[in-house]
């Protein structure tokens, strides 16, 4: 369910709109170009099941959680997400994300994250931790590959944090890989 939806549209500019307590998504766009939207206190952009060949450029997300590939794994036969190009965003995999920690004590996520490549990502961030893999102890992240990643924080190299994650790094990778 969405409050507002756009398909195959260009040059959209939304100002002065307030949307509260949406059932699923507040604003949905499919195949749109040059969109300027309102600020958010949740995911700025949420990429869902079946998204492929997605190019995102010149995105400013503030305030909010940034760009997320999320809400995956609800259905067993759900389509995956492939070939997404993000610019100037930290790298975060959080399998232990439970909004408000409600109704999920000691819950172990069931989605396995593996065989993911982060390549040619460059940018300056507003957070010190640019790479954060907070993976499940039951289903650790594996075969993560970092190549050509340069992320800085306040004109210095940003930090990386890994929990239950394994993989490799090739070429220049800043912050120093924790995989």
TrEMBL record:
<keyword id="KW-0134">Cell wall</keyword>
<protein>
    <submittedName>
        <fullName>Detected protein of confused Function</fullName>
    </submittedName>
</protein>
<dbReference type="GO" id="GO:0071555">
    <property type="term" value="P:cell wall organization"/>
</dbReference>
<dbReference type="GO" id="GO:0004650">
    <property type="term" value="F:polygalacturonase activity"/>
</dbReference>
<dbReference type="GO" id="GO:0005975">
    <property type="term" value="P:carbohydrate metabolic process"/>
</dbReference>
<dbReference type="Pfam" id="PF00295">
    <property type="entry name" value="Glyco_hydro_28"/>
</dbReference>
<dbReference type="InterPro" id="IPR000743">
    <property type="entry name" value="Glyco_hydro_28"/>
</dbReference>
<dbReference type="InterPro" id="IPR011050">
    <property type="entry name" value="Pectin_lyase_fold/virulence"/>
</dbReference>
<dbReference type="InterPro" id="IPR012334">
    <property type="entry name" value="Pectin_lyas_fold"/>
</dbReference>
<feature type="active site">
    <location>
        <position position="65"/>
    </location>
</feature>
<comment type="similarity">
    <text>Belongs to the glycosyl hydrolase 28 family.</text>
</comment>
<keyword id="KW-0961">Cell wall biogenesis/degradation</keyword>
<keyword id="KW-0326">Glycosidase</keyword>
<keyword id="KW-0964">Secreted</keyword>
<keyword id="KW-0378">Hydrolase</keyword>
